[in-house]
Amino acid sequence: MIRRIHSGGPFEEKIGYCRAVVVDGWVHVSGTVGQGDTVTAQCQSALDVIGAALSKAGAGFKDVVRVHYYLPDASDFEACWPILSETFGAHPPAATMIEAALIDPKYRIEIEVTAKLP
């Protein structure tokens, strides 16, 4: 069985995707951007949206096993480290940071996660 989780974000309908897909005990959360004027505000906002999707799926950040971070400017990443460390705490996932252009130049970070249902 496949379960799709929608967050109501504007790009979901425009592009044709959903925030997360739950299948075979795994939660695949789409790349998520956040709102705000700074990379740290956008990071926290994106994590809030991801956290809500994980919760709807029956998981949490402690269940995340893989995370990808995409930033147009890799030098912005270090400012996010304290937020990410606090979010994942004692359960850090495997992680990759990639420097890449995002869907709109106003976005400074996009985060994508995979979690295993508890």
Automatic annotation (TrEMBL):
InterPro entries: RutC-like_sf, YjgF/YER057c/UK114
Signal sequence, start to end: none
Family matches, as CDD domains: YjgF_YER057c_UK114_like_6
Pfam families (alphabetical): Ribonuc_L-PSP
Recorded superkingdom: Bacteria
Name of the molecule in the record: Enamine deaminase RidA (YjgF/YER057c/UK114 family)
Organism: Primorskyibacter sedentarius
